Amino acid sequence: MATDDASVAELASQIRRKHGRTLNRLVRKVFSDSGEVRPGDVDSATGLPRRIPPSIEAPAITTRDAEVRVLASRMLDLGAAVPRLPSGSTGVWVSVSAHHARTRAPVRIDLLERQAWALALFRPDWEPFLNPQGEVGGGATHFCYYLDANGRPVIASPITP
Questions:
Q1: Is 44 part of any domain?
Q2: 77 assigned to some structural domain
Q3: Which residues contact 120 (CB under 8 A, 6 or more apart)?
């Protein structure tokens, strides 16, 4: 990642310590039927799932009066859709956004914290496999982990001409 990796890892560790049970609950949901998103479940016009994926909310670490919302889902059989991935690959999509704790108005939190929440979902050694996917309106940042057919993280190989 293009940011201060030590700071992100430190924040992710802090998030795991404070919110470990909540994070584990989300991961269990992601790997259950409620976390599955199949190609037919995605709106072709927007590219977004037709139903709300599993999520958690917790106090932000770096921004006072902010709550972080983390949504996560699992896209099945990405190997067919993304030729750079091995057959049978899946993707775990993670979206991190924040809102004011009282008014619920969207607020932006530091990019390092957004990355840290995405990293905190899984083991620290998965950090090299986190793929930033960009931002959308409202300050949500999207990330993806690609997993092989055995559930191990993989790096999508670069596209070659």
A1: no
A2: yes
A3: 12, 13, 15, 16, 19, 23
Q: Is the pLDDT of residue 149 over 70?
A: yes
**Other C-beta atoms lying within 10 Å of the C-beta of residue 109:** 22
Question: Looking at the domain assignment, is residue 154 inside a domain?
Answer: no
**33 CB neighbour count, 10 Å cutoff:** 7
Domain count, the chain: 1
18: domain range?
A: 5-38+53-148
Tokens read off for 37: 């998103």
State the pTM of this model: 0.83
Share above pLDDT 70 across residues of the chain, in percent, rounded to a whole number? 80
Contact 63, 98 (CB under 8 A): yes
Could you identify the residue written with the tokens 């991935």? 85
Residue 76 in any domain: the answer is yes
Q: Is the pLDDT of residue 160 over 70?
A: no
| Predicted local confidence at residue 2, as pLDDT | 41
pLDDT tens-place string over residues 55-70: 999 999 999 999 999 9
Cβ burial, residue 135 (10 Å; 0-12/13-18/19+): middle
Which two tokens mark 100? 């004011």
Which residue in this structure is represented by tokens 């917790």? 58
